[in-house]
């Protein structure tokens, strides 16, 4: 019986630690190995309508969407993306939706990007490494050559992504996703107490909320993900303008800047 | 928790909602015969794969190339009467169908379909192209399927081969997004299925 109880407690602690591991301050901006933007010539990036969700996190863990907050945040994030796009040294266009058959195409690739992002998140950001995605690098430390194994950003949407190039005229596509859940009054009260019950030997610290986001850049010639950035505990309240500015700054962290000062064509 | 996690967890839902922290992957070398699903089934892949430490049911095994929501090989070998194809995670409210050794091959696609429908809580599932084949020298059934999960626009396609030997089910399925991945890796999956020895 004791061992059974112990197992139950361990099980509980385990599932709670999973809740915890889903939220650590994990930031990760990665560029595909060997990737660099072409040094000269025009470069077009299309930014698709950001996928934004804002809601309330209830005591039981339910995430209730809030349409007003979501729309406000989406507008703010879009505005900030437009404002910060100037720094990218490229022609940046913003497209909410495509028309006709291309609308379905975009939906399909949004779905695929989401699935690929899930894999990158699990196997790169969270470090649940896949051996087939690792490479060994040599480097020098203390005057001695050493080797280390690192995860690479080696994911693709496939060459079919070139259909989006045809539809938009862009060389690269950027997908942006944010999800925020703010603790509501009941949840905040539970947070003030600090713990939500200490049962079978394990205490649960109530999360303040969920604030995750990612941005990814796809080469529309090959479908390759050339840059991916995700953060499981993002700052900035996207419902407010200054918060959205901070949030977009974080989403764009590590963006592979172009190594030139080519004038941007109109 | 949300759509982002949902994307990665969609396929994982099949198996267990609470495993990633303990999960780990091991390299499966190409060209080397390897025992799968803690059983007598041996396969020889044509390229390197990653094997998950998580086993949805005792005699099962999962391999992937890019992540299980992008390409997934699911092996089950020696499933006995009364056992489920996937983890029976919600057995009180929504129990998964149990294998019955008296099933014949034509019932295998239906067994898998109803298992997935319940495990993923999806009604959008179709089975097509059911045809006879062999698995490791035994009579088997091959079929294709596709489904989507609530909240995701992504259509997933799959192909499976199943055989019943001495009242036990042996099955290998391959599932991937219909966009790009399914076609890209289908031949790799078929090669693995064709390499089965018992």
Any overview of this molecule?
Chain A is α/β, with parallel strands linked by helices. Chain A has one domain. Chain A has six helices and twelve strands. In chain A, the strands form three sheets. In chain A, strands 1, 2, 3, 4, 5, 8, 11 and 12 form an eight-stranded mixed beta sheet that branches. In chain A, strands 6-7 form a two-stranded antiparallel sheet. Chain A has a two-stranded antiparallel ribbon with strand order 9-10. In chain A, β3 and β4 form a beta hairpin. In chain A, α2 packs across α6. The longest helix of chain A is centred in the middle third of the chain and has 25 residues. By secondary structure, chain B is of the alpha+beta class. Chain B has one domain: Protein Transport Mog1p, Chain A. Helix content of chain B is 19%, strand content 34%. Chain B has three helices and ten strands, in the order αββββββαββββα. Chain B has an eight-stranded antiparallel beta sheet with strand order 1-4-5-6-10-9-8-7, with helices on both faces. Chain B has a two-stranded antiparallel ribbon with strand order 2-3. In chain B, β9 and β10 form a beta hairpin. Chain B is globular, with a radius of gyration of 15 Å. The termini of chain B are far apart. The N terminus of chain B is likely disordered.
Give a quick summary of the entry.
The complex is a heterodimer of chains A (266) and B (198). Chain A is of the alpha/beta class.
Secondary structure elements and pairings:
The complex is a heterodimer of chains A (266) and B (198).
Chain A: H1 2-21, E1 27-31, E2 44-48, E3 51-57, E4 63-65, H2 67-84, E5 91-95, H3 101-125, E6 134-141, E7 144-151, H4 162-168, E8 172-183, H5 185-193, E9 195-199, E10 202-205, E11 209-219, E12 225-231, H6 241-251
Parallel strand pairs in A: 2-5, 2-8, 3-8
Antiparallel strand pairs in A: 1-12, 3-4, 6-7, 8-11, 9-10, 11-12
Chain B: H1 3-12, E1 25-28, E2 34-35, E3 42-43, E4 49-52, E5 60-64, E6 72-79, H2 108-120, E7 125-135, E8 138-148, E9 155-165, E10 168-177, H3 181-194
Antiparallel strand pairs in B: 1-4, 2-3, 4-5, 5-6, 6-10, 7-8, 8-9, 9-10
């Amino acid at each position: 019986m004791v061992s059974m109880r112990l197992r139950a407690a361990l099980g509980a602690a385990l599932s709670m630690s999973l809740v915890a591991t889903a939220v650590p301050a994990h930031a990760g901006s990665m560029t595909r190995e060997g990737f660099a933007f072409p040094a000269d010539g025009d470069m077009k990036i299309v930014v698709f309508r950001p996928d934004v969700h804002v809601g309330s996190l209830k005591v039981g863990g339910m995430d209730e969407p809030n349409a007003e907050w979501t729309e406000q945040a989406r507008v703010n994030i879009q505005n900030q993306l437009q404002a910060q796009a100037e720094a990218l040294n490229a022609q940046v266009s913003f497209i909410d939706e495509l028309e006709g058959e291309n609308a379905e195409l975009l939906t399909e690739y949004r779905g695929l990007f989401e699935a690929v992002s899930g894999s990158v998140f699990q196997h790169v950001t969270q470090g649940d490494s896949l051996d087939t995605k690792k490479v060994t690098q040599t480097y020098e430390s203390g005057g001695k050559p050493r080797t280390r194994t690192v995860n690479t950003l080696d994911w693709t949407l496939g060459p079919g992504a070139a259909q989006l190039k045809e539809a938009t005229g862009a060389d690269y596509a950027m997908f942006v996703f944010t999800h925020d859940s703010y603790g509501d009054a009941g949840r905040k009260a539970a947070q003030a107490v600090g713990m939500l019950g200490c049962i079978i030997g394990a205490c649960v610290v109530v999360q303040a909320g969920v604030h995750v986001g990612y941005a990814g850049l796809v080469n529309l010639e090959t479908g390759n993900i050339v840059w991916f950035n995700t953060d499981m505990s993002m700052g900035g309240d996207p419902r407010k303008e200054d918060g959205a500015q901070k949030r977009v700054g974080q989403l764009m962290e590590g963006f592979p800047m172009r190594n030139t000062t080519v004038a941007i064509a109109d | 928790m949300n759509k982002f996690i949902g994307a990665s967890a969609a396929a994982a839902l099949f198996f267990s909602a609470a495993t990633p922290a303990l999960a780990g992957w091991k390299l499966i070398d190409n060209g080397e015969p390897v025992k799968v699903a803690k059983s007598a089934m041996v396969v020889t892949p044509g390229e390197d794969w990653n094997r998950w430490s998580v086993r949805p049911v005792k005699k099962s095994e999962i391999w992937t190339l890019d992540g299980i929501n992008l390409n997934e090989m699911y092996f089950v070998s020696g499933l006995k009467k009364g056992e489920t194809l996937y983890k029976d995670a919600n057995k009180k409210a929504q129990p998964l169908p149990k294998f019955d050794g008296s099933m014949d091959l034509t019932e295998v696609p239906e067994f898998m379909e109803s298992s997935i429908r319940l495990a993923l809580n999806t009604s959008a599932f179709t089975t097509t192209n059911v045809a006879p084949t062999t698995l490791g020298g035994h009579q088997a059934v091959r079929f294709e399927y596709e489904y989507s999960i609530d909240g995701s626009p992504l259509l997933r396609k799959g192909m499976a081969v199943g055989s019943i030997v001495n009242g036990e089910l042996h099955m290998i399925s391959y599932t991937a997004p219909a966009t790009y991945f399914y076609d890209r890796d289908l031949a790799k999956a078929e090669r693995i299925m064709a390499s089965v020895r018992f």
